[in-house]
Amino acid sequence: MTVRPGAVADTIERHIRTVAERLRIQEHSVWRYLDPADLADSIAEQWHTAENSSAPGQVRGDRGL
Question: Of 36, 16, 43, 18, whose CA–CA distance to 28 is shortest?
């Protein structure tokens, strides 16, 4: 599976914004609760899982990032 440049960053930004809205805090405050290395590992693992579980030619949607 090929990921367009910026796709992961866009996904992270969207989720950070959602968490901030739900917690009613500023977006930069959300990062206090996240470890960037763990987040990167989690995203890589989810992409790998999606890549291995999709039928040929089928792309799975958002994996809960």
Answer: 16
pLDDT digits (tens, 9 = 90+) for 5-24: 678 888 888 889 999 999 99
The pTM of this model reads 0.56
2 Cβ contact list (under 8 Å, min separation 6): none
Do residues 64 and 43 lie in contact, with contact meaning Cβ atoms separated by under 8 Å? Answer: no
| CB within 8 Å of 17: residues ≥ 6 apart | 27
Contacts of 38 (CB under 8 A, 6+ apart): none
**CB < 8 Å & 24+ apart, contacts of 36-44:** 39/12, 43/8, 43/11, 43/12
Amino acid, single-letter form, for residue 12: I
